[in-house]
Amino acid sequence: MRVLAAMSGGVDSAVAAARAKDAGHDVTGVHLALSPSPQQHRLGARGCCTVEDSRDASRAADVIGIPFYVWAMADEFGRDVVDDFVAEYAAGRTPNPCLRCNEKIKFEAVLDRAIALGFDAVVTGHHARLEQGVLRRSVDEGKDQSYVLAVLRPDQLAHAMFPLGDSTKAQVREEAARRGLGVAEKPDSHDICFIPDGDTAGFLRKHLGDSPGDIVDDTTGEVLGSHSGAFAYTVGQRRGLKLGRPAADGKPRYVLDISPVSNTVRVGPAEALDVDEVVGVRPVWTNGPRTEPFECLAQLRAHGQVFPATASPDGDRWIVRLHAPARGIAAGQAVVLYDGDAVVGSATIDAAHKTVPA
């Protein structure tokens, strides 16, 4: 097959491209230039998409012995990932930009272009397995990325290849060193690639400006303090509230809810974060839709805990009832359902409730 290997400049994508070539495929490497100012997108091990990353990808392609190109996709990335990220926070939700990037860039814009150019599939260095069209977890549980791939439709998975799913990250690095790839020990990028300094609140403030409002006690309705922008808070947050005085029982307070309409942040005790029902909208079925309630495992954040659950499809949404309460679940995140280690599908969390009294 003719396959296009998306090469980020890191070790995973380099080894994935090399394995695709070893498997007998006709491989072409491509680096996605996603930033309009790539020299500013890495600080230490944070971030990605720099000139350095492009050069690392090019050198890896030379070692592997495959053609290499750079595709400028900063406009698409800015519109579909960065602007979406800012808009979601402005609406009081907590998005996952990695899911959006996989959905809109790597497996929509890139895949569409690849197919138009005559390629049969796109290869990436994601840690996940794809077996007979079924997306499964990686054997390396600590590096598993099936959660952020669960936005892919069956027709997209039919043109995807994930060669690393049967290897641990340590094995990938060892293989890269054996192959003479200079990225063998390159640190992984962390956090949000377009916020390399990790200051999400500062990034959002630059885009949204200050918007002062109240921090309110969820139990009493008392105004406890003020904020300069509700976008700087996420559900479950404990640190940085700067309330000035403790709760009456001396226990810490947590962010329970963010309301962009009233511009208020409501805080309360940890137990008030517990939910046992999650409503998901815009569902994506990775292996065919289901119409009846079914038992599954629900994952509510990347690398987060997995909860036994009952999922009930309800038109264009899911009602997911957790068998044990989860804590600190925010709208805008994804709920991904699994049957064992196989991904059933994903949906965007619209609401989370506590239905069983304490």
TrEMBL record:
| Annotated spans, Interaction with tRNA | 143-145
Per UniProt, where does ATP bind?
A: A6, M7, S8, G9, G10, V11, D12, S13, L32, G125
Locations listed in the record = Cytoplasm
Origin superkingdom: Bacteria
The yes or no answer to whether the keyword tRNA-binding is present is yes
Give the first-level EC class, as a single word.
transferase
Q: Where is the tRNA-specific 2-thiouridylase MnmA-like C-terminal domain?
A: 281-349
The UniProt entry's GO CC annotations, sorted and at most eight, read: cytoplasm
Question: One MF term in GO for this entry?
Answer: tRNA-uridine 2-sulfurtransferase activity
Positions marked as site (Interaction with tRNA) = H126, Q333
Active-site residues (renumbered): C101, C193
Q: What EC number(s) is this enzyme filed under?
A: 2.8.1.13
Keyword hit for RNA-binding: yes
Reactions catalysed: S-sulfanyl-L-cysteinyl-[protein] + uridine(34) in tRNA + AH2 + ATP = 2-thiouridine(34) in tRNA + L-cysteinyl-[protein] + A + AMP + diphosphate + H(+)
Question: One GO BP annotation here?
Answer: tRNA wobble position uridine thiolation
Task: State one Pfam family annotation.
Answer: tRNA_Me_trans
* Location (main, coarse): cytoplasm
NCBIfam families the record matches: PRK00143.1, trmU
Provide the function of this protein. Catalyzes the 2-thiolation of uridine at the wobble position (U34) of tRNA, leading to the formation of s(2)U34.
Family, according to the entry, reads as follows: Belongs to the MnmA/TRMU family.
Name of this protein: tRNA-specific 2-thiouridylase MnmA
